[in-house]
């Protein structure tokens, strides 16, 4: 989603801004732009489309400025055209702003400003901020900013240039992340640490309502009350993201291939000397008193939560719910001190999941987040954090972060069930040993990518398809269907296999591809009967099952056999096979696999 970069230093700003924007590209965007302070003026250049379009526009312009801001925009208010792209300037050009987030009351504010004689060029909510700053400005930017903040409702990370102070940048945030960094005589703003890592690992993260005033090699911080505050940089131990696909044609394929390694790393980070999740020692003390667990996330992270719920209910013997964060945040799920809410998020910045977390905290529920990005807002807000070790994920469609989430949730369920005396130590160890074999089993699926390529021919010429399963296979069906939809633009649905005859089956046409997930052995005969029902009506069925079921499938035409594991853990193996099938389908359809249309990597608006 939108990305912010700011630079002030001894060198020309534009190459730094462009490099920063390229690092933010993976988040998804549809236009980009920069603004620099040069010769007493602020020069803005913006372009819809890719950063390469912006570079082409910049090619003929001599920009020597050493201070500037840049933005990648994922359209919310107004089309993704040149005019709506950021930066946006106030009516007279006094203030120029880049913005992540959404100003919810921008319409009444705009109306008021129009009534006061302010003019607007774009349809964005951001232009309202620029004009508000101009309205409140009486020579002191911080005071104008503070007045502006009092009237803005919604979320924002802002990076601002004021024409009167060409050697200063201003940054402020509420509800959207913003980070700063120093490198000798250079200072940087970025909405994502990834864009700062080429320069330093010591990162300052602005807190809610905090402001940073940045000069060459110097940053001054102000708290939400306007008083100057001390801030310590935190060390971010992520490898610099090189945006290098290596020999892979797409980041998605590279990230699929990284999964065995990621799972091994996640396991060894979360299991130390035979102890599961040692860093949760405080939370473990509350396990006996808990009465309910809520698993909350968006998209694939929600599917991981659903898989976590199914396993936890089975071995942990506790009431669980799984909900999408956008429903949970406005819903009425009863929450109290005896509820544990588990929030799952790769980025740790997803607006709905963050809001759901804040709601749970307000209701005094215990909170635990399963996060991939260290230093993210959710990691800071949660009482407890489990980090997955997926590293930076570039492809918009999640692969390695999803399977790492599953691994973390499986481990948490084992830990919980054992600590609450629902399973014996010997059973815990048996299950743990099954988990430790998953990386090599994932590798064996990757090694059979030609099978996935073959089965993708079921889908590549179709406009629709189904994914069906029961129990934990249903969670896999949801994820398989989402992966197919988002990268290959095929309208697939996921259904509990037993539900088809209650309505959905009327949609079935000759040749409709149906992926049947059959790894729940105890439910195998039931799902198998549903397979027969859809086949009888002309469906072309691909069955994903464990090797142990192969005898029952000898007459079936399309079978992708997965290595045997505990039925409850098979979702992780299914996910890898389904990722590959979606990947090859999208490849055959000529889709933009790493950057599917309309999607963003980190969804920081509601
Ligand atoms: C799908 C996908 C999304 C994310 C969702 C949540 O491939 O990537 O559905 O899972 O947007 O994002 P995070 O995990 O960052 O909260």
Question: What structural class is derived from the secondary structure elements?
Answer: alpha/beta
- Individual helix count: 19
N-end to C-end Cα span:
12 Å
| Major β-sheet strand ordering | 3-2-4-1-10-9-11-15
Compounds present?
A: fructose -6-phosphate
Q: Tell me the number of strands.
A: 27
What percentage of residues falls in helices of 4 or more residues? 25-40%
* Spans of at least 5 consecutive residues with low confidence: none
The radius of gyration computed from the alpha-carbon positions, rounded to a whole number of angstroms, is 25 Å
Proportion of strand residues: 15-25%
Question: Could you tell me the mean pLDDT?
Answer: 94
Structural commentary:
It is a single chain. The protein has 606 residues and is an alpha/beta fold. The protein is 35% helix and 23% strand. The protein is built from 19 helices and 27 strands. The strands form five sheets. Strands 3-2-4-1-10-9-11-15 form an eight-stranded antiparallel sheet, with helices on one face. The chain has a seven-stranded antiparallel sheet with strand order 5-6-7-8-12-13-14, with helices on one face. The termini are close together. The model has no long low-confidence stretch (mean pLDDT 94). Residues 298-301, 345-347, 350, 353, 397-398, 482, 486, 602-603 line the site of fructose -6-phosphate. Residues 298-301, 345-347, 350, 353, 397-398, 482, 486, 602-603 line the site of fructose -6-phosphate (F6R).
């Amino acid at each position: 989603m939108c990305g912010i970069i700011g630079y002030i230093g001894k060198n020309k700003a534009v190459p730094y801004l462009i490099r920063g924007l390229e690092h933010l590209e993976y988040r998804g965007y549809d236009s980009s732009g920069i603004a620099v302070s040069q010769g007493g003026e602020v020069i803005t250049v913006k372009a819809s489309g890719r950063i390469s379009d912006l570079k082409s526009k910049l090619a003929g312009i001599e920009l020597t400025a050493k201070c500037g801001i840049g933005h990648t925009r994922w359209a919310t208010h107004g089309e993704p055209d040149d005019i709506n792209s950021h930066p946006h300037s106030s009516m007279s050009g006094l203030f120029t702003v880049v913005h992540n987030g959404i100003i919810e009351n921008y319409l009444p504010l705009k109306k008021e400003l129009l009534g006061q004689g302010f003019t607007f060029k774009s349809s964005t909510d951001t232009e309202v901020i620029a004009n508000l700053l101009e309205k409140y400005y009486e020579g002191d930017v911080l005071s104008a900013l503070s007045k502006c903040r009092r009237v803005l409702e919604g979320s924002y990370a802002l990076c601002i240039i004021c024409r009167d102070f060409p050697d200063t940048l201003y940054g402020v945030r509420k509800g959207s992340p913003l980070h700063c960094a120093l490198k000798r005589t250079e200072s940087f703003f970025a909405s994502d640490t990834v864009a700062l890592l080429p320069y330093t690992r010591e990162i300052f993260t602005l807190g809610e309502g905090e402001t940073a005033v940045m000069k060459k090699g110097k940053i001054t911080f102000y708290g939400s009350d306007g008083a100057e505050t001390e801030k310590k940089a935190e060390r971010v131990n992520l490898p610099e993201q090189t945006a290098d696909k290596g020999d892979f044609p797409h980041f998605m394929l590279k990230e699929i291939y990284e999964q065995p390694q990621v799972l091994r790393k996640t396991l060894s980070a979360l299991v130390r000397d035979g102890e599961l999740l040692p860093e949760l020692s405080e939370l473990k003390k509350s396990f006996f008193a808990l009465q309910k667990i809520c698993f909350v996330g968006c998209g694939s992270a929600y599917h991981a939560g659903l898989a976590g719920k199914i396993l936890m209910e089975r071995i942990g013997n506790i009431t669980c719910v799984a909900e999408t964060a956008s429903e949970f945040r406005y819903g009425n799920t009863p929450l109290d001190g005896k509820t544990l809410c588990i929030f799952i998020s790769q980025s740790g910045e997803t607006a709905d999941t963050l809001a759901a977390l804040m709601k749970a905290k307000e209701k005094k529920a215990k909170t635990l987040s399963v996060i991939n990005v260290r230093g993210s807002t959710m990691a800071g807000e949660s009482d407890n954090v489990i980090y997955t070790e997926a590293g930076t994920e570039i492809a918009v469609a999640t692969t390695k972060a999803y399977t790492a989430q599953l691994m973390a949730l499986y481990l948490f369920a084992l830990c919980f069930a054992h600590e609450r005396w629902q399973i014996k130590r010997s059973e815990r160890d048996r299950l743990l040993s099954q988990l430790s074999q998953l990386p090599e089993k994932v590798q064996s699926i990757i090694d059979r990518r030609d099978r996935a390529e073959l089965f993708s021919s079921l889908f590549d010429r179709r406009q629709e398809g189904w994914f069906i399963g029961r129990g934990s296979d249903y969670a896999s069906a949801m994820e398989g269907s989402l992966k197919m939809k988002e990268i290959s633009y095929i309208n697939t649905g996921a259904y509990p296999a037993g539900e088809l005859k209650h309505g959905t089956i009327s949609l079935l046409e000759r040749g409709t591809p149906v992926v049947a997930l059959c790894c729940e052995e105890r439910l195998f005969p039931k799902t198998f009967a549903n397979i027969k029902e859809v086949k009888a009506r002309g469906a072309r069925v691909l069955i994903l099952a464990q090797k142990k079921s192969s005898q029952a499938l000898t007459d079936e035409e399309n079978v992708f056999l997965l290595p045997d594991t505990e039925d409850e853990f098979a979702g992780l193996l299914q996910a890898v096979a389904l990722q590959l099938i979606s990947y090859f389908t999208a490849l055959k359809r000529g889709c933009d696999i790493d950057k599917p249309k309309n999607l963003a990597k980190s969804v920081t608006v509601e």
